[in-house]
Amino acid sequence: MASTPPVARKVLHELAEHGDVRLDSYYWLRDDSRSDPAVLAHLRAENDYTAALMSDVKHIEDEIFAEIRGRIKEDDTDVPLRRGQYYYYERTLTGKEYVQHCRRLVPTDGHITVFDAMPVGLDAPDEHIVLDENVKAEGHDYYSIGAFKVSPSGRLVAYGEDTNGDEAYTLYVIDAESGEYVGQPLKGVTSDIEWAGDDYLVYITMDSLHRPDKVCLHKLGSDQSNDMCLYHEKDDIFSLGLQASESKQYLFVRSESKSTSFIFHLDISKQKKQLEVLTPRLYGIDTAASHRGNHFYIKRRSEDFYNSELVACPSNNVAEATVLLPHRERTKKEGLQ
């Protein structure tokens, strides 16, 4: 049993930023590669000490864990989401750590309504397991799926896989029916990925500090080295995010800092895939966007409009904004959908 806690050695390291010098004696413990033998040895020593210190209450820990897990319905499915000709949902299994991504054919061509429900039972279309995380996780100490995106036609699925916990994902594309891989994997991407039609993927990569800084366009079947950088955020106080509009007609790329954000949009239907400015970079103004019909809807917040205002602009003329809901001192606008 380890009787004393491990003590990390001190190695003086100078960090200079904005004319200020900071001394860090434990900077050597930073290892983004997670492969430095000295760092790993120290972490193992800390874990061993913690395990030894808590060994006399390990049985209580196990009892609490079993009680918590016993209150969870393990064999379950989440609420199905209808998209195209399929219902998509996740299934959890008793005794398994990971989920299955499933789909079931919609038995009718009718429009989606609030009463729409996935059929189950003997007469329902067969369930198809698109991706089983339990199978994919075999042989890995850590496994996480960061994104699961179905192509517009429903024929392909793109998913991001992390096997070491650093949230730098490898992006794979598979045939939704056969599970066979399509094209080559994309390395070092974030969990923000979206389809831009059935032939293109848009994804974000990170810099050396794991700041999401580049948004890229990948043509299915091509090599990642040939991917086009649509935008590079060089200001290190900003980070990029990516999402599809609820209409699925546009992709939004949002660059944000603590008090400022601005948005680009990409029209999926256009042959030439490029980003266009939706809201400009104006320091102190934070924006969020949605789309429906022929208009973009933008929630805009600033120091003066601290409870936000809602504006709309035609999708073919984003400079022509109309205020729909003005700022109100006693009413806060939390979100936009």
Q: Kindly report how far apart the N and C termini lie.
A: 56 Å
Describe the largest sheet: 7 strands, antiparallel
Let me know the number of strands.
22
Figure out the total of helices.
3
* Class computed from helices, strands and strand pairing: mainly beta
Low-pLDDT parts are none
**Helix fraction?**
10-25%
SSE ordering: EEHHEEEEEHEEEEEEEEEEEEEEE
Adjacency order of strands in the biggest sheet: 8-9-10-11-12-13-14
How large, in whole angstroms, is the Cα Rg? 24 Å
What amount of the residues lies in strands?
A: 35-45%
What's the rounded overall pLDDT mean?
94
Shape: globular
What would you say about this model in short?
This protein has helices at residues 37-53, 58-70, 133-136, and strands at 13-17, 20-24, 76-77, 81-83, 86-92, 99-105, 127-132, 144-150, 156-162, 169-175, 186-195, 200-206, 212-219, 228-232, 239-244, 250-256, 261-267, 276-279, 286-292, 295-301, 309-314, 322-325. With 337 residues, it is mostly beta strands.
Describe this structure in words.
This protein is mostly beta strands and 337 residues long. The chain has a domain at 1-58. It is 10% helix and 40% strand. It is built from three helices and 22 strands. It has helices at 37-53, 58-70, 133-136; strands at residues 13-17, 20-24, 76-77, 81-83, 86-92, 99-105, 127-132, 144-150, 156-162, 169-175, 186-195, 200-206, 212-219, 228-232, 239-244, 250-256, 261-267, 276-279, 286-292, 295-301, 309-314, 322-325. The strands form five sheets. Strands 8-9-10-11-12-13-14 form a seven-stranded antiparallel sheet, with no helix packed on it. Strands 3, 4, 5, 6 and 7 form a five-stranded antiparallel sheet that branches.
